[in-house]
Structures are given as C-alpha cells and as structure tokens.
Amino acid sequence: MPHKRQLRENFGLPRPWFSHVNRGTIPADVMAGLTNAAIVLPQGVAFAVIAGLPPEYGLYTAMITPVIAAIWGTSMIMVSGPTTAISAVMFAALSELAPAGTSIYIQFALTLTIMAGLFQLLAGVFRLGGMISFISHSVMVGFTAAAAILIGASQLGGALGIPTESGGGVIERVIRVAENWGAFQPLALLLAASSLVTIIAIQKLSAKLPAYLIALLVGVAIGEITDARNAGIAMFDKIPSVVPQLGVPSVSLADIPALLPGAISVGFVGLLEAVSIGRAFAMRRQERYDANQEIIGQSLSNIVAGFFQAYAGSGSFTRSAMNAESGAKTPLSAIFAAGWLLALLWVVAPFVDHIPKPAMAGIITFVAWRLISFAEIKHITRSSRSETTILFLTFIAGITTELENAILVGVIASLVAFLYRSSHPHIAALSPIERNGKRQLRGAKFHDLEQCPQLNILRLDGPLFFGSVDHVESELRRFDALGTGQNFKILVLKGLGKIDLSGAGLLMDELAKARRTGGDYHLVLPFKDTVDALEGMGIFNSFDRRNIHPDKNHAIKAVVDQASDDVCRTCTIRLFAECEGKPAPPGVAASKPAPHRSGSW
Fold first, then answer.
1. pLDDT digits (tens, 9 = 90+) for 126-137
2. Burial of residue 449, with CB atoms counted within 10 A of its CB: 0-12 exposed, 13-18 middle, 19 or more buried
3. Cα separation of 55 and 226, whole Å?
4. What is the H or E stretch that residue 187 is in?
5. Which tens digits make up the pLDDT trace of 107-132?
6. Helices 374-383 and 385-400, interaxial angle, to 10°?
C-alpha cells in the first residue's frame, strides 16, 4: 500500500511547479495559452465528432482536462485535452452500445470517462508508471494507424453526403457507404475537399498559422455561398451552453460491466500518450519528470471531466509542441489556454450551426491521415522483425475487429516478444584482440579471431532462469561442437540479468561435464549480489571458491595455470600474456606481445 507521505506528495497543494511562476513567466504563459486556444477551438469540435459526441463536449474537454492535469501533473510544458486516439477508442467502445450522439450515448461516454480516470488513479497510487515502458512502441504505432483508418472510414459517409448507420468496423462502414451510393451529394464532396485542401495548403505555407481554424472558415464560407443548408447538407446544431454544467452521469449499475473494457482501453491509451509525450518533452528540455505523478494528474483530470460534461482526454502532442514553440514557461499556460477558449466560445458559439458537417469531415480526414506515422512504420519494418510483427498484429486486429481489441493484441504480442527475448539471451565466444596498444576480449566470430585450443571463453548477456536454460544449454553444446575439444571453460556473467535455481543447476551440470573430460569450469561474477544469490542456491556445494573470479584477468590466469603443458608445447597461437609461463614449441615466442598485461582485458 502507498505510504501516507507519498499520498500527500501526490495529491497535496501547492504543487512543486508553483514556485516557478513569477512576473517574468506569466506574460509568456498568457500568450502561449492564447495560441493554444486558437488551435484547439476547431480541434475540439473535430475530436468530439470522432468520439460520436456533440461538438460542445470536445470543447468542454479542452477546458476542463488541461487545468486539472496541469495542476497535478509533472510536465512543465505538456497540454492535455481531447486527442484523436482516445476519441477513436471512445467511439469504438460505445458505438456498439448506443447510437452516437444520443442522450444515452453521452451518458455512457461521461461514465466511461470517470471509470477510465479511476483505473488510471489506481495505476498512479500504486506507482505503476514504470510498467508503461514495457509496452512496445510498435503497439502504439500500429494502434494509431488502425485508429486512423477507422476514423477515415467513419467520415466517408459525411464527406460524400451519404447518411449511414454508425458503429461497426472499417469494412462494415465502407460497405454501408457503397450500398447507399445513390444518396451521394456532390456539394458535400466539394465542402469536404475545400477544407481538406485548405488545411494541407496552410500547413505547407506555415506551421505557425491556425490551419484548422482557417480551413473551417473556408468550409463555412463555401457553405454560405452555395446555400448548403437549403441544398440538404447536414449542419451542426447550436451549442446549448458555453460553460459546462456540473452533474452526475445517469447510467444504471447494470450498464457498468459493459463499459468496463472500454474504460480500461481508454485509460490505458491515455496513459501511454501522456507519459510518452511528457517524458519526450522533459528530456528535450532537460527537466525532471515523474511518470507516476503524471498518471495522478491525468486520472484526476478525467474523473473531474466526467462530472463536467467532458469526455476522456490525455496529453496532446500538437498542443504541447505549439505550447513549447510559443514560449510557455510553466503549466500555467495550459490553464490560461482553457480561459482563453472559454472567452473565444462566447464569440464563436452563435455561429456553430453554420458549420457544414462535410467541411468538418474533410478536416477530420486530415487529422486521421496525420495520425499515421509512416516514418516510424518504415523504421520499425527495417530494423526489427519482432517489432514489425507486433505492429502488424496490432494494426490488423484494429481494422478487422473492435479497435480496443488492438490494444489487447498488441500488449499480448509485446509480452510474447519480451518473453522470447528473455528466454534467448545472447552468448558469444571471446578471444583477445589488440586495439590502440591494449589487448581486449572481443567476439571471436565477428572479428574472425583465433581461439585457444584448451580454453573456451564465453559471455552470457541476459537472464539465466527456467525460461532460458534450454536455449543456453543448446548454445553451449553448439560452441562445444565448433571448438577443438577445449576442456576448460570460462563463462563471463557480467551481463547476467537474473538467475534462479534452474540457472544455478545448469552451471553445476556444466562444471561436472567439464571435470569428467579432465577440464574445469570457471565463472566471472563481478557483482557481490550475484555471488550471494548463487551461494544461497547452494552452488558452492559444487564450485570451489577458486573457480569464481571478479574479472576475466583472474579467470584466465587460473585456467592457464591449469592447462596441459603437453598441449602448450604444440601450440603456436600463444593468445594470452599469461602463456609465457607455459612451455612453447621450438622457435615460437612464449606469448603474444601484451603492452598492458594482466590489466588489459
């Protein structure tokens, strides 16, 4: 259980960042907040539509979540709010339970938001932030790509002016549009294309211009010129209230189990986004970052959001990057952004019903396209087969089944890949090589080095436990087959991650095998904790203390002293400096030059 002092640090006020606020930081934060408000105004509407909610819910989310997350989070620059990925998961989780945009759908969304926040809160209180690092980056890349395809498919009908039922996967949505092709409206496609082309052009012209807002205004202008409303083009409804209202979501207890899987998925995706974004900006700015405290901030923001007509949010990379570029100094900039957004809404709200839905569909299509990280996909597919498999499985699960299933498939695939790598640690044969006047042990195969006819030096990098014992033993036998009958072995365990009774048993078996052939087995164990652990497992019932060495130098000297003089008399390799004490063939130097003899390994 968390200590009371830790809970006070997580939830207490004032927060540590409060001390960084001064007369010099406030003006910069005010201006950065204004820039952020201009960006999130059209984004909030777009993300709400993606989530299957009325536009105001995206704007409420952009007001509530950044304030709470900024106060209790740990990032100095990250801005929270509605995001594409969470909106897509929200829609995928709820569209099968109720029609999008209906009253019950909205109540489900608010309840799911609170449940997701509670799930995150538990993760933060029990300090599980470090576990986020165990989830492969390829999971998020594959998941966001699948979410982008789903978002694009969900906007296809709106962009073409074809009314269709909501819900279902990518294939179902495309089929519905095809079946209702007779309802196609060319004007709807014109509006969608106009906003899409505008936002692409503005983005290429300057990243500092409010491209989303300009694209939306272009769509509205064309809608007014063409009299889109009277032409049958769907328009957004008026925003009933600029200020979110406090209230408890109205959902029966019987509906909670159906919402639980979606809440876990939303909470999990939110944590992945927030922690990865917050850590990236902290590293870039060389600031301290506490993932567990960030989780606390995100959880509180979602819990509070659910009671103020806002749905789940997380860290926004776009808004956070713009916040940094705008000169923000403290999390106060996110709080100012919420205030500026509220002020802007008083001006903009009366005109929301002039926004054509196809124009917004064009903007959302652009958002979906930008969600796919083609550079990351290319990098992953070129660099790692296992990560490529994880990415592929996550993506396929996301577009062929429910989107939240992609998270589960990706996590399971990551776990399987992790277990496989853990059970297949790397083992390499070592041999001396001279570099810059010093002799070092390096991979014999990679550097094409000769090896001693009596001694085989191996290095194990990774854990030696019940899951890896079979692989390690198989590799040891493979090196035996490649060797020249070396009876003496040194196993370097400097990179040993973990060892258990099965691993200790394998070491004792290897010692017995070496001694049966007239040789011996030596271990290099540089860390006392590993020696103590092996002692507790009874390894010294088989190994003598003289077979355990703190470094490779001592191990090599001990083995050379044991080596057969008869073999040394015929050996022309003379690999080690320690070989000078052994008999040599006529006309052969006692040992290879060794400028830094015993300390050179």
1. 887 767 766 778
2. middle
3. 23
4. helix 186-205
5. 999 999 999 999 999 988 888 776 77
6. 130
Run of H or E residues at 493:
strand 488-499
Query: How far is C-alpha 231 from the chain's CA centre?
Result: 46
Residue 95 has pLDDT above 90, yes or no: no
In the block, residue with structure tokens 């978002």: 151
Residue whose entry in the numeric block shows the structure tokens 């969900």: 154
Q: Is 550 helix (H, G, I), strand (E, B) or coil?
A: coil
Number of residues assigned to the chain: 601
Structure tokens at 60: 């409420």
Give the tokens for residue 478.
């493979």
Strand partners, 431: 442
* Among 450, 397, 372, 386, CA closest to 423: 386
The DSSP result for 326-349, as a single string, is TT--STHHHHHHHHHHHHHHHHHG
Secondary structure class of 247 (helix, strand, coil): coil
Task: Please report, as a single letter, which amino acid is at residue 431.
Answer: S
Q: How does DSSP classify residue 356?
A: B
Cα–Cα distance, 305 to 86 (Å, whole number): 14
**What pairing do the DSSP bridges indicate for beta strands 455-464 and 488-499?**
parallel
**Residues 70, 326: Cα–Cα separation, whole Å:** 17
Locate the DSSP E strands across 194-319.
314-316
Residue 417: half-sphere exposure toward Cβ, Cα within 13 Å = 21
Task: Identify which has the larger pLDDT, 353 or 280.
Answer: 353
The one-letter code for the residue type at 135 is: I
